[in-house]
Amino acid sequence: MLLMVFQLQPYDMRPIHELLPDTCEAPCFLGIFPGSTTDEQALQALMNSIWVDAESVQFSRQPPSSSRFDDLARIQWSWSAARPDWVMADRQPYDGIVNIRNHVVERIAFDTRIEAADLYRHLGSPTILVFAPTSPTKAWSIEWVYRYPRAQLVMHTEVRACPYLGDLWKAHLYVQMEAKPSAILPTSLASPNHVDMRMVLQARKQLVCGLS
Fold this sequence. Notes:
This protein is an alpha+beta fold. The protein has one domain. The protein has six helices and nine strands; from the N terminus they run αααββββαβββαββα. It has helices spanning 2-7, 14-19, 39-48, 116-123, 165-170, 197-209; strands at residues 58-61, 72-77, 96-101, 104-115, 128-131, 140-147, 152-159, 172-178, 188-190. It has a nine-stranded antiparallel sheet. β6 (140-147) and β7 form a beta hairpin. The radius of gyration is 18 Å and the shape is globular.
């Protein structure tokens, strides 16, 4: 029922189209493609974007991986005054981050004001839905994963434990675009095609909240 209700509400698709432009065959942002864009290309793309405060862009080397075979680095940035209103600005000490492995972008991450309902309208049910362990008195997180041939789009939301259904659709998304899929956790619900959202949400409502 809730899925049908929010589908009838008017909404602005501009933020979703700016986040996921049709020019990207896989998840990309500001022309940066996880898995193929180099560290130098990513740095230049951020410096050239009017959405980004060029003076805030910082490149830093990171300690080597546990295997000591991977060269790790990071780019951090803050948004400029020309940013779109759907990105979440004024985070400390930075607004966004690019993780780099062996001189190639591995992950892009930043906060948005885009609601989960808008994502669902545009992309439909995710490939994987991960529910973090929770207690009835604390907020808990849900991870939406949309898999592509060479990358994946991961959206994090945080909602009240009970009742959470209405809060779920209004929750703002923390975005990660990743070069390779992460491991499926034991609390994950996965499908070779897509998760049946109605079935999953109804089951979780009954299991976690004790509601009918």
